[in-house]
Amino acid sequence: GLAVKFYSSKEQIQDMLKTAGGHESFGPKITKEVRSREHARWKDALQRAMDLERWGKGDEEKVKPLKAPRFRKVAGIKPEQEGLNLMLKMVEKPNVTTHEEYHDVVCGDASGMVTLHLRPRHFLPCEVGQYIRVQNAYVRMKNG
C-alpha cells in the first residue's frame, strides 16, 4: 500500500534516511541475554522431545534485510511506472468541501511538478511548503 509521512524541513528527511533508511525502526522488547536464554531452553526441550539429531541438520534460511528505498526525481518518472518513491514539497493543497473520495494535490521538487491523486487522510495533516514522502506509488496518466 501507499505510505505517506510529512516533514517540515530537509534536515528531518536527512535524519530519517540516516537513522532508518526510510523504514521505521523498532527496538526489541526483550534483551539479547534473555532471548538467548529462552532460545536455549526451547532448543533443549525440543531436542529431548523429538530427538532431532538423528534426522540431521537442515540448511538455515538467511533472512534478507530490507532494502533502503531509492527516492527518485519527478523528471525521471515514466508513464505506467510502478513502485515510485518520491520526496516532494507540497505546492497546492485542495479545499476539501465536497465529499469526494480522492483529491488532486500539486507537489514538486527541483526537477518538476506532479499532481498526486490522494485521499484526504493522506494529505490533510500537511500544509503548503511542507515536505511529503511518497512510497510505492504508481503513475496514472490523466489528460495526456
From TrEMBL:
Q: Which Gene3D superfamilies match?
A: Nucleic acid-binding proteins (2.40.50.140)
Entry-linked InterPro entries: NA-bd_OB-fold (IPR012340)
What is the protein's name according to its record?
Uncharacterized protein
Kindly list the organism's lineage. Answer: Eukaryota, Sar, Alveolata, Ciliophora, Intramacronucleata
